[in-house]
Specification:
Layout: E1 3-6, E2 8-11, E3 14-22, H1 39-62, H2 70-84, H3 90-99, H4 103-119, H5 124-127, H6 130-144, E4 163-166, H7 171-179, E5 184-187, H8 195-203, E6 207-209, H9 214-217, E7 223-227, E8 232-235, H10 239-258, E9 276-281, H11 286-293, E10 298-301, H12 316-329, E11 334-337, H13 366-372, H14 374-387, E12 393-397, H15 403-423, E13 432-437, H16 440-444, H17 446-450, E14 455-458, H18 460-468, H19 486-501, E15 505-508, H20 519-525, E16 529-532, H21 537-545, H22 565-576
Parallel strand pairs: 3-4, 4-5, 5-6, 9-10, 9-16, 10-11, 11-12, 12-13, 13-14, 14-15, 15-16
Antiparallel strand pairs: 1-8, 2-6, 3-7, 7-8
Length: 579
């Protein structure tokens, strides 16, 4: 009997293979009292386990192929850095000494404290970093429990061609299994912005998340069909269905192979409308990937990595060095977003800035935090301005919601320019500035902002969440995350119209910009600057280059007025049909 399960497709592709059910046994962590004369021995036990965990990850890192995307090594390096952090060594060690508790319990208490901090974070991308804490702590716990190395960490080819079924996967798990040639993976938990799903997209592994209790419905070695785009898992398929998906898999592989020819092509529709494709970047190592993808610049360079996992904010010279490296590494414009941190993120010697907010998503975050911490904000502005002396740089401010915020921000920038001029330091005096449109208020007031800045950038990830009042990484409500909701589309169109009226560029840097399903719709709405993950660029370029805007359905913009999702989907399919 055929069984079809539905989850969230997070990495496109078709896979056909036998299931390998992966069980991560959670260590049974219990507290017990350590005799006084064994305290230092218990501390050594914790430190030795931490060192062994580090050695395991270093060994995993050695198995990463040289041609793998930089995302791969950066994720593993993140876990290695966490193992070097005092929060996972010094703090639990102090607990062992003060409470005379066992190493497992001290580590668990610190894990819980760190997870609570991440759970309160407002930014969905940063909030999923709690998974990294869990993955690292669980690795140490397994070592403390003297567990054997898991099957998937043994590189003997046993997983080649298999579809992994698991509760969740770590980035390290994913790297190891990709090295062994897995066909796809399906997990019970996970979100679209977790490290593991981002890694799956980078490695081209079809992946589905969010199928609750999936291991109860699938048998080990059972033949499965995976559709990573639709989020569908099929078990017990008949031969006709298998043949159909084998044909689809063949065509998909042909399609991916054909994309390389677009790298050297300009991005232009059939009726000669020029479109700009930019890349999003988070780490300096992303630059190589961006260059290989043929991006025309960086539309969003996130700076939060400079502030995280440290006891104090970065100084001006450190930031300048980081920004300069990026600017000089790519011969194209770089749009640097000022730090998008929240009230709950530790950036000052372990002290939280402000009190813990009841609802951090609506609290002191992004530009609000910048303006409340002027010294920290000015340090970053000065560094970005100085970096503009080495290449084309733009500054983008996140979460602007009022005209007063924008005026205050512009005043801070003007003051920094005056300081640098007095000090005789070089910068671009005509540096362009823009704001992110990521909350409904800023979209509704887009025309007001368009009069005062050089560009607007639509951040669809937050815009959709704030508009629909849902958390997209919450398994209980993420089914409501809908880029095609008429309220979302109207806000996007409103912003595009404001930019057109005042003759300024409007880009889109959220995930919607890199989703092939929405490319032609966005073109019909007037978007001409897309910024996305580098891996999505060639496919989006193909769609654009094969599109004749004059042949898109005349009623394409009727999607703004449709409330029936079936009607919306039908119109989207019509828009996406070959023209």
């Amino acid at each position: 009997m055929t069984l079809e399960l539905q989850g969230i497709g997070v990495s496109r592709g078709i896979a056909i293979g036998k299931a390998h059910i992966l069980f991560h046994n959670q260590p049974d962590v219990r507290e017990y009292l350590i005799p006084a004369f064994e305290i230092e021995q218990e501390v050594d036990r914790l430190l030795n386990a931490t060192e062994k965990a580090r050695e395991q990850l270093m060994e995993i890192r050695k198995h990463i192929p040289a041609n793998a995307p930089t995302d791969v090594t950066s994720f593993i390096d993140t876990h290695i850095l966490m193992l070097n952090d005092s929060s996972l060594t010094t703090v639990p060690s102090d607990m062992i000494r003060s409470r005379r508790c066992n190493a497992e319990w001290a580590l668990q208490l610190q894990r819980d404290a760190l997870i609570n901090v991440f759970n309160e974070m407002d930014d969905p991308y940063l909030r999923t970093r709690r998974d990294d804490v869990d993955h690292v702590v669980n690795r140490i716990h397994r070592i403390l429990a003297d567990e054997q190395v898991a099957d998937h960490e043994i590189s003997d080819g046993r997983l080649k061609g298999h579809i992994i079924i698991a509760e969740d996967l770590t980035p390290a798990d994913t790297v190891l299994m990709q090295h062994q040639g897995i066909a796809a993976f399906v997990t019970e938990h996970g979100g679209t912005t977790s490290h593991t799903t981002i890694l799956a997209r980078s490695l081209g592994i079809p992946a589905i998340v969010g199928i609750e209790s999936v291991r109860r419905y699938i048998q080990d070695n059972e033949l499965l069909i995976i559709d990573g785009e639709l989020g569908t898992v099929i078990a017990g398929a008949d031969q006709k269905t298998i043949n159909e998906y084998q044909q689809r898999l063949f065509k998909f592989k042909q399609h991916i192979a054909s994309l390389s020819r677009y790298k050297s092509q300009i991005t232009q529709t059939k009726d000669n409308k020029s479109i700009k494709l930019l890349a999003n970047a988070e780490l300096p190592d992303d630059i190589k990937m961006i260059s290989n993808a043929g991006a025309e610049g960086i539309g969003l360079y996130r700076t939060e990595f400079l502030y995280m996992n440290r006891s104090s904010p970065p100084e001006e010279e450190e930031q300048l060095a980081a920004y300069r490296d990026v600017v000089e590494s790519i011969d194209a414009p770089v749009t640097i977003r000022t730090f998008d941190l929240g009230a709950d993120k530790t950036v000052d010697g372990g002290r939280n800035i402000g009190q813990t907010a009841t609802n951090p998503a609506l609290g002191l975050r992004a530009i609000r935090l910048c303006l409340s911490q002027p010294n920290m904000f000015r340090t970053q502005l000065r560094a970005i301005l100085r970096a503009s002396a080495f290449g084309k740089v733009k500054i983008m401010f996140p979460m602007i919601s009022t005209q007063q915020e924008l005026l205050q921000t512009q005043t801070q920038l003007r003051n920094c320019k005056e300081e640098l001029t007095r000090e005789g330091l070089d910068f671009d005096p005509y540096i362009e500035t823009g704001v992110m449109i990521e909350i409904p208020a800023s979209a509704v007031c887009a025309e007001m902002f368009a009069k005062q800045v050089d560009f607007l950038s639509i951040g669809t990830n937050d815009l959709i969440q704030y508009t629909l009042a849902i958390d997209r990484i919450d398994d209980q409500v993420n089914y409501l995350y809908d880029p095609l909701h008429p309220a979302v589309l109207r806000l996007i169109y409103m912003t595009l119209q404001a930019g057109s009226k005042h003759d300024i560029t409007v880009s889109m840097c959220g995930e919607m910009a890199g989703d092939p399903r929405f490319t032609r719709l966005l073109l019909a709405m007037g978007l001409d600057t897309f910024s996305m993950h580098p891996n999505a660029i060639l496919e989006i370029k193909q769609i654009i280059n094969e599109t004749d805007l004059s042949k898109l359905p005349e009623n394409a913009l009727q999607v703004l007025n449709l409330s029936d999702p079936f009607e919306t989907e039908a119109l989207l399919q019509k828009i996406n049909s070959r023209n």
